[in-house]
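Collaboration report, partner site 2.

Our partner group contributed sequences for two proteins of shared interest, and the home lab folded both. The records are reproduced in the order in which they were received, starting with the first partner submission.
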Amino acid sequence: MSNDIQMSSLIPMPRDEMRSLKAKDDEIARIYQVEANVRSIYQSAVHLARTSTKTQYIYTITSYREIPFIVTNMDDILSRLRILFPDCSVQFTSIKMAMGADGAMRDITNLDPKAMPFIGQIQIKECISIDWS
């Protein structure tokens, strides 16, 4: 009798479903990771808006481990953020940074191209920008 109870909880698993199990699990994990990234960016942007007078949040992709995932899933991340921040500019962009005389990194993305040869080491950072100005 106990074998009947154990067997009744098992679900028939056709061959096609068996073949797609890993892909389904991988997709669930991907969606979960996209949502975790979106949640983190959302919370940081809202916190910035609540605690400062700035009108732009920039999420810089710094971890070499996260870059491939973010870039591969950028469309999903941006579309989700655009839903969460309607009427705001949400975009993936690159920012050129250079160290100032005081040692602080400065955004030189919009610097006149003629001045670029006079800048020392330039770092290019990939980021997601949310602008509500």
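Second partner submission, folded after the first:
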Amino acid sequence: MSQFSFQLKPFRPFRLDLTVWVLRRRPDNIWDRWDGQTYRRVLVLKGGPVEVAVVQTGPPAEPKLNVTAKGAHLPAEMKPILKVILERILGLQIDMKEFYRLAMHDGKLKPLAQKYKGMKPPRYPTVFEALVNAITCQQFTLTSGIRMLNRLVATWGVPLQEGQASSHAFPRPEDLAGLELDALRKIGFSRQKARALIDLARMVMDGRLDL
């Protein structure tokens, strides 16, 4: 397994811990992993699964992120691809100055903005992942929805094996398009949600939906 490292500089202020907290939504999220210092996620690129590990080294006012990527095939040209993906997921290039300026004049927003200063609004890496999250968590408690997504990730997400341990990427359209309803029903999805996920994946794969 090979690896390389690079740095990212977010718009300041930035706090990785708060941003990942919002991204994960629940502490038992298994695909956006956080150990109190390092954010980890498996991404599937053309060369296969790649795990990125992100650590903040600079303070919120002068933030710096060290990124280590690890995978079986890691050509140097993957660096700019990973940079774009991480900037999207962690909201690194979002400038919050106007929000903070607005919040300072609002009695309810001001204490929240001060307490959580440095949190950036994260985003899903793909629209497909956003829709899978929305369908799964609809009319559920968020905790139940995340746990169901955990089962989806563990069953059909592309694995990255390292020693005896393995981590999984969030499933792609091609990972779900060939499933039958009963497969998703076995891990807790209703018939309606199972059909919606499979239809969504097949529409993307068939080119009927451009995400």
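Feedback sent to the partner group on the second submission included the following. The chain has two domains: 2-115, 127-205. The chain has a mean pLDDT of 95.
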